[in-house]
Amino acid sequence: MNGFVKRRDRPVPGSIPHVLDMFRAEVRFYREIAPVVGVRVPACLHSDITPDGTLLVLEDLSAWRAGADPVAYAHLLSGLHQRWAERAAHHWPWLRRAGAAADLVGDLFDQTWPAVTARRDLTDTVRTLGRQLFGRVASVGRGLASAGPVTLIHGDASMANIRTGPAGELALLDWEDVSAAAGVADLAWLLLSSVDPAQWTDVTAAYGPAAQLAAAMPAAAVQAVLSLADTVEGSADARGWVDRLEAAERLLVG
């Protein structure tokens, strides 16, 4: 088969991918949602779900530039969220909801935090944020349900999951975390995962009304701390996560 081949084995029972049904959800996205989603995504050449796992053969966009202008990215997300506000859950009732697997994510955070807080590259501001999240992650995840109108969200709107074409066209990749939730969840993760804090104001303005952004930021901060845990202490990647987590804390305290 030509194209980009993405195979996923059946997830381990009880794992986060299993509980969220991430791999089959992505196949269903390409079969049911991609044809009408209204944003550019890789064309699906073949899909399969078997007892052993999933298979996708997608249009190969590896020649496109990785990443995108964050302002343009925010504008694209805003259009997606406006298009499917109050409609996505009705059209595709199988989409996961805000707070899915919150208990599992909470357990992972609480197991990970002691090693993170001991890092020498962590700032006092980030330690304070992490302490506030410790033991509360499950309730934080479920709190996303009140962060705005439910719409179709990508679920992992980072720079790693977008490409820019030769003519400036943007394409969103990797839909394993597709969900029905508040759109500001995508905006919060875009900011925390990928945008220099100096650009947060411009990117948020490009997205449009985001009054509930602070309500979505704690859940994004949980994922950011878990991502920080996987970096080398003192590395450029680590410093980026710390800087963005500090910006998140400043947003939360007003």
Characterize the structure shown.
It is a single chain. With 254 residues, the protein is an alpha+beta fold. It has one domain: Aminoglycoside 3'-phosphotransferase, Chain: A, domain 2 (Alpha-Beta Complex), CATH 3.90.1200.10. The chain has 11 helices and 9 strands. The strands form 3 sheets. The protein has a 3-stranded antiparallel β-sheet, with helices on one face. A 3-stranded antiparallel β-sheet has the order 4-7-8, covered by helices on one side. The longest helix has 18 residues, at 236-253. The protein is globular and about 50 Å long. The termini are far apart.
Helix content: 40-55%
Please mark out the parts with pLDDT under 50 across 5 or more consecutive residues, or reply none: none
Instruction: Give the tally of β-strands.
Output: 9
Order of helices and strands: EHHEEEHHEHHHEEEEHHHH
Which labels suit this protein?
254 residues; alpha+beta; three-stranded antiparallel β-sheet; single chain; Aminoglycoside 3'-phosphotransferase, Chain: A, domain 2
Brief summary:
With 254 residues, the chain is an alpha+beta fold. 48% of the residues lie in helices and 15% in strands.
Give the helix/strand layout.
Layout: E1 4-9, H1 16-20, H2 22-33, E2 44-50, E3 53-58, E4 65-66, H3 70-84, H4 88-91, E5 96-97, H5 102-117, H6 124-133, H7 137-142, E6 150-153, E7 162-164, E8 170-172, E9 179-182, H8 184-194, H9 200-207, H10 213-229, H11 236-253
Parallel strand pairs: 5-9
Antiparallel strand pairs: 1-3, 2-3, 4-7, 6-9, 7-8
Helix pairs in contact: 3-9, 5-10, 8-10, 8-11, 10-11
